[in-house]
Amino acid sequence: xxxxxxxxxxxxxxxxxxxxxxxxxxxxxxxxxxxxxxxxxxxxxxxxxxxxxxxxxxxxxxxxxxxxxxxxxxxxxxxxxxxxxxxxxxxxxxxxxxxxxxxxxxxxxxxxxxx
Amino acid sequence: xxxxxxxxxxxxxxxxxxxxxxxxxxxxxxxxxxxxxxxxxxxxxxxxxxxxxxxxxxxxxxxxxxxxxxxxxxxxxxxxxxxxxxxxxxxxxxxxxxxxxxxxxxxxxxxxxxxxxxxxxxxxxxxxxxxxxxxxxxxxxxxxxxxxxxxxxxxxxxxxxxxxxxxxxxxxxxxxxxxxxxxxxxxxxxxxxxxxxxxxxxxxxxxxxxxxxxxxxxxxxxxxxxxxxxxxxxxxxxxxxxxxxxxxxxxxxxxxxxxxxxxxxxxxxxxxxxxxxxxxx
Lengths: 115, 281
What we know:
The complex is a heterodimer of chains A (115) and B (281).
Chain A: H1 6-9, H2 13-22, H3 28-38, H4 50-60, E1 63-67, E2 81-85, H5 87-111
Antiparallel strand pairs in A: 1-2
Chain B: H1 2-14, H2 21-44, H3 49-60, H4 63-72, H5 76-81, H6 89-92, H7 95-108, H8 116-148, H9 153-191, H10 201-227, H11 232-263, H12 265-280
């Protein structure tokens, strides 16, 4: 399968992140890993491009980030931020899913030449 | 050595971003954690350290693109306040500037354990010195007028009284602004920015400082009006100078403080590293 890179995903990254966080809280690297696993390795995102999307979602109030606790902290090295979906994020995800369905129905029909 | 390489890479992304210290510190730590995860994953797959580092940096993405995207997530007001003045590396990297930055920030911001009232009093003292410095030229003019016109002793007394009263009023206003500022800041942080403590401190303080300066400017306009007894040919210029000059000076100080804190960032990182190393040992 051909890799899907950052440019192809532009505009959909936030939706993907929300969908991943719906299944449970995660830090940046974990989100990336889950995206890769669930796409069968096709979603090959650069890790650095994930954080701006996380900050945008946090600014919108769709997700909330908390620094990992002392007990989870690594013996050495920087702390991670664990992100979780907020109630607003759940609503936003539902709306994005609806928009996605409409998009694929309309655009898919045209692209695939369906009547 | 590897940790230093990872940190340097993250620093090249974060350092040029125009944002406050708290936000940049968060970016730094989080990006470094992500990059470290990538590196450790490569090591776990059996790569050597050099190869793992190369692959981790490649997997992290283009620093310029990440920086642009990260910058776009910073609110406009913060971007404007912290846009900073560009500065040659040999100046920014100098220890003397970092020490000066720390000293200025320490003098201006609320220190650890310092009460709100003490902080307000300290700021008021600073503003008092500034206002006194502004009063010197006006008092000079008054004295000069006294010697030119011998019958104007009463005018000198009135002008001096007005100037003294205005000075006290300005200091009280400053003290009040500082106290109100703390109250507003705490309320806003708790309500809207609770999870980003310290994020808006300087911005809000900058706004209150500007208001205080505007009030001071108007008070000084009143002084000038009394001291010069409606000398209309000077009044417009004096009014403009009285309002504009302190405002410009204070704006420059606020910008300078923001920039000084940027210079002090390396120092803060080194301090944290030292603390972490000591904790590990």
